[in-house]
Design a protein that fits this description.
Length: 317
């Protein structure tokens, strides 16, 4: 493709049912430039690879497959696919989400081409609750409002990669993709946003361009104790790595004790969701919290009364 302007990265794992909607929302884009779609499959076993082979046979000039030999996790799969990118710009889409505007790529590329002072451009998004069907507009902070320290501390929402487009050259200056593979980072959005904020100059379009699904089966929201522990052990490695990228900044550091309390807070939430009193009591004590939820684990009765009260409150909302 002589006029290859953009590389779109889609990573997937066992999403054969939802992936076509994501793929089609990219392939149906109307542009006056060529683009490639690089799809990283993390050793799916549900027919995803057969689905991807079918797409590639139909559109070989656009579809590039990055097939992992074994399941390596979101970060490694994403980075491996991204290293194949050839476009001037890179954009991203999760396999269970989709873009809503077939002019999206053209609008964003045109903006960056006409405003060379910017390295990256992002938009708003819409969240879709799969259970209720309710949609909610996600308004991200403006570039001027984003603060790397607030983002590090979880006090600001990171930009959804579904809404982002970046100059590939600048992206590669900010992000070492080989580290994502080596350390098998369990996520690729929050950490990437932090690394980009060091150098990249952001612009913002106040328009929703993608649907972000909220599903019970999200790969980033584990619902068992072991999966939570595995996920957050990898995140611990990732957060230590990020802190090391700012050796002269005391505001970005890794607190080992605080991290362990945070993980136990997550485990407490899982225990409450499962109605598991013994585990809830154990993890609540380790979380160091003094909330009503933690106090309710004092006895079996107060634990279940608290869960019932939460259930009734949600029903009334």
């Amino acid at each position: 493709m002589k006029n290859l302007k953009l590389s779109v990265i889609i990573c997937t794992y066992n999403r054969a049912k939802l992936l076509p909607e994501a793929l089609d929302s990219v392939l149906n884009q109307k542009t006056d430039f060529d683009f490639e779609v690089i799809i990283g499959d993390d050793a799916s076993t549900d027919g995803t690879r057969e689905l991807l082979s079918g797409y590639q046979k139909k559109i070989p000039q656009k579809i590039v497959l990055s097939l992992m030999e074994k399941n390596s996790g979101i970060g490694a799969n994403w980075a491996t696919a991204l290293m194949k990118a050839r476009g001037k710009y890179v954009a991203f889409l999760d396999d269970d989400d989709y873009w809503t505007d077939d002019q999206r790529m053209q609008i964003m590329v045109d903006y960056l081409e006409n405003h060379p002072e910017y390295d990256a451009l992002y938009t708003n998004a819409v969240s879709l609750d799969e259970k209720t069907g309710k949609q909610h507009l996600i308004n991200y902070p403006s570039p001027e409002e984003y603060d790397i320290y607030k983002l590090w501390g979880g006090k600001q929402p990171n930009i959804s990669l579904n809404t982002l487009m970046v100059k590939r050259e600048v992206f590669e200056e900010c992000v070492n993709l080989k580290d994502y593979v080596e350390y098998q980072f369990p996520i690729q959005d929050w950490n990437t946003h932090i690394l980009l904020l060091r150098k990249a100059r952001f612009a913002f379009m106040d328009m929703p361009t993608s649907i972000f699904r909220i599903t019970g089966g999200s790969l980033s929201r584990p619902r068992t104790y072991e999966k939570v522990k595995t996920k957050y052990q990898k995140e611990k490695i990732m957060c230590k790595y990020l802190a090391e990228q700012f050796p002269d900044d005391e505001k970005i550091s890794f607190d080992e004790t605080g991290w362990e309390k945070y993980v136990n807070h997550i485990l407490t939430s899982v225990a409450f969701q499962r109605g598991d009193y013994r585990e809830a009591k154990q993890y609540a004590q380790l979380s160091g919290e003094h909330s009503m939820r933690v106090k309710s684990t004092k006895t079996w009765i107060t634990f279940h009364l608290y869960r019932l009260a939460r259930f009734l409150r949600r029903k009334c909302e």
